[in-house]
Amino acid sequence: MKKTIIALSVLAMGAAQAEDLIVKIGSSAPLTGAQAHLGKDTENGVRLAIEDYNAKGVTIAGKKVKFELVGEDDQADPKQGTAVAQRLVDAGVKGVVGHMNSGTTIPASRIYNQAGIVMISPSATNPALTQQGFENVFRVMAHDGKQGPAAAKFALSKLGKKVAVIDDRSAYGQGLADEFDKAVKAGGGTVTTREFTTDKATDFLTILTKVKAQNPEVIFFGGMDPQGGPMAKQIKQLGIKATFLMGDGGCTPELIKLAGDSITEGSAYCTQPGVPLDQMTQFRTRFKKRFDAEVQAYSPYAYDAASAIIESMKAAGSVEPAKYLPALKKIQFKGVTSTIKFDEKGDLKDGVVTVYTLKAGKWEPLK
């Protein structure tokens, strides 16, 4: 008799589990190639959020929900980004956290818009993303229209008035460099030269030789750490005395690793939208314990993006994008990186930018 009761209980549990509502949330970032460390960091931020909500238990429309991550590798390539977007649409995801790079996010957003799927980027900062008029596109990081001027203001007030600007010609790198360039000129500074490279290059000696001839006080690079690290080394190699400054693409432990002893305290700075990382101690500790890895850059923002999707589903009582979208537009909650709330374009409201300086081999917020 006891065996029969146990068997019936197991069957009942199986039936209950079978009735759970499975909700797929997509994530897209470069998981291979030179930016894989950033892409995996981003995806793990989404993964941690999903695990947290599954552990707490979420009930929507009377059904227990189990969230599942569908991760894709867009290789930081625009063409691959659109292919990945279509795969996520075909997989039936109810929301997407991604993409990481502006160059992949902007074309991919058109696919999600056509399919009516919510997309929240944790890190695409080119202003053009939310200027397309897509009501289902959001981001949880302040865009370059805020970061560029903030970096320029810091450079002009603390580092020098003569600035050389280099970018990698990606949607992110060029977009940030353009905003920085405009703000420097508007602030009374001088852009001594404007140079460009690619997001695959590692040899910058020709460009930097031109830069050296102009004798700038600051070199600003709009790009990511796989290029920023070698560039910093070659700046030292050529004996250029200028301070090296990057945006969020350089605010990573990997940049410090790649640059080695070519950057020292006071010789390099970076800016990143969001509150200082030292205010995210609990998240960083949990992230390290779960993945045995340090936060690179974007995992806290990816966590907040996934949380925004799930919180909106809860508020709307539906996992369908068309039904939870109105709730997402009105959402407001305290995230890891800031208070998450969106303006009418889908941009983060009241986004802040933090300046970091190199101290004891780590990026520390400038006090």
From TrEMBL:
Keywords: Signal. Gene3D superfamilies: 3.40.50.2300. Residues 23-359 form the Leucine-binding protein domain. Residues 1-18 form the signal peptide. It holds the Pfam family Peripla_BP_6. SUPFAM superfamilies: Periplasmic binding protein-like I. This is Branched-chain amino acid ABC transporter substrate-binding protein.
